[in-house]
């Protein structure tokens, strides 16, 4: 066995030396070629190609590939060793196979889909299904041109057992820094199916915590750009993430995959820019404060909760009716008379509006009609009998044209939205009362907020829809693909509006209902989103395997879900064992114990350690005390845009999407968390942030679901023995 390993390692070292020499040679040739700066279009195209190759080779020279697949195609008669990397590159001389195959290429899909066995394997190529035999599947780790590891996950000619998870566990055991990394070398079969799914489909992905949802979505963008290069463009793709800090956290993945120029935003930022609104951070934090900082826990949520109602498609119908009313009565009463003796009959204006320009949306229709009136005025002016009459008529015409235009409805989304909720005066032909479909509580709260000039995030989808109905697609970019992360916190209305701005229902919608802590605005079941699309335009996928945390942490988190939420959306952990989950009761001083726990975990070989509190107020107080004892410690309060790694203190509800080597959940007791399903989900989110180590500190009064979760054999009570001894000294 040892001899086989040495032989494999030597073989791969020799191949690496050859590959690096070829890459260095090609890069040197390209660097020695003068950069073209002239105006010849053909030369500009060639230079752009050379520059792209320079960049690709510069990346490859450090880590040229990560996998090898020996494959013999049926009828091919030859077994070929295929090396797979993040970026493909050919030999400088003509060859029957590339030097490195791009991981997105059809044949590379075998590296992810083949999990062993003696049966033939197949992949789908542009020419059709290709079948053959896999002889070897090998993972290699190359860092800074040094071959660090060789691991065979399948060898047809070996009697040894397959070790398909060995390499995965090795990579998962590595500590994290302050950025999400690509998983191109460890993509699993179920993830690969999602990544390579057809473009014009709304993929809805339910993924347990740590299942790689976000990373899979980012890799899917890279795949779509490769597979549909003639149909899609990076600048016409967008990722919607929960907050700006999360965007910073994921910002390195696409560049690592050689992909740039994809738009990245929060929904609120994008919508506000589309509408020309300015939203303040205070408005967003006020909403979070209302739901997460309120004494006694989260207020009751019903279908009449403002965020739930305003996120429903019921409001779409109300908006459509309001815009229709404005449109039908938009042409002012009476004929248009620019000066005495000139009359443009209203029936003519109505014909223009209702017939000739009927295909245009209301705002554009008004523009066309007013432009037509202006041309009519110019024609009438030519009939003036004298220069004095012309001057007088021109002056009156300008004034009356302007006055006539002012009589039209104000096609402004915010104005119409305020009219719907009766926060401003409504048009004369509108009913005096607001639509009966708007619940009284929603009407009262929204009217009050709009009168104060506040626009909340939950108001943005309705405002965008009004904008779309008024203006159509003009001035708005039509996306080739949209990724929505943490989609359980999106409303059906948001998805329905975004579908107006994307071609072919091309979505990747991913989230986890078990992490639905923003239930006051998000979906409670994926059917709320699936129902927005025709069955042939959507597909549902479930990722149940968690790659983030140890078995001990996942089992404990599953216990919380089972006992506290009664959910069956449980994670299946990868076989990676670690320290037991610790439940530690406070001693004489809560602050001293939290400080001691942080000192213990931060003193180990961990790059990121977080203290998770119940509220932002708790985090601020704790940070103030801890910052006197720890230099490299950061407060994450919802206002920062960059995750810095190291030691962090943050409210648990702001931790979603992040991960830490070790996490300390402060106050995991009944004083901070109740017995509701929402409280259990909140703690589930906190517990699943930890990769390697999870400690929960409490006052002894645990919620029942934590007591149930702690009954498993993978938990421990009290401080570690070494820590206790240190404290005793």
TrEMBL record:
<protein>
    <submittedName>
        <fullName>UvrD/REP helicase</fullName>
    </submittedName>
</protein>
<dbReference type="InterPro" id="IPR014016">
    <property type="entry name" value="UvrD-like_ATP-bd"/>
</dbReference>
<dbReference type="InterPro" id="IPR027785">
    <property type="entry name" value="UvrD-like_helicase_C"/>
</dbReference>
<feature type="domain" description="UvrD-like helicase ATP-binding">
    <location>
        <begin position="186"/>
        <end position="550"/>
    </location>
</feature>
<dbReference type="GO" id="GO:0003677">
    <property type="term" value="F:DNA binding"/>
</dbReference>
<keyword id="KW-0347">Helicase</keyword>
<keyword id="KW-0175">Coiled coil</keyword>
<dbReference type="GO" id="GO:0005524">
    <property type="term" value="F:ATP binding"/>
</dbReference>
<feature type="coiled-coil region">
    <location>
        <begin position="6"/>
        <end position="33"/>
    </location>
</feature>
<dbReference type="GO" id="GO:0016787">
    <property type="term" value="F:hydrolase activity"/>
</dbReference>
<feature type="binding site">
    <location>
        <begin position="207"/>
        <end position="214"/>
    </location>
    <ligand>
        <name>ATP</name>
    </ligand>
</feature>
<dbReference type="InterPro" id="IPR000212">
    <property type="entry name" value="DNA_helicase_UvrD/REP"/>
</dbReference>
<dbReference type="GO" id="GO:0000725">
    <property type="term" value="P:recombinational repair"/>
</dbReference>
<dbReference type="GO" id="GO:0005829">
    <property type="term" value="C:cytosol"/>
</dbReference>
<dbReference type="Pfam" id="PF13538">
    <property type="entry name" value="UvrD_C_2"/>
</dbReference>
<keyword id="KW-0067">ATP-binding</keyword>
<dbReference type="InterPro" id="IPR027417">
    <property type="entry name" value="P-loop_NTPase"/>
</dbReference>
<dbReference type="GO" id="GO:0043138">
    <property type="term" value="F:3'-5' DNA helicase activity"/>
</dbReference>
<dbReference type="Pfam" id="PF13245">
    <property type="entry name" value="AAA_19"/>
</dbReference>
<keyword id="KW-0547">Nucleotide-binding</keyword>
<keyword id="KW-0378">Hydrolase</keyword>
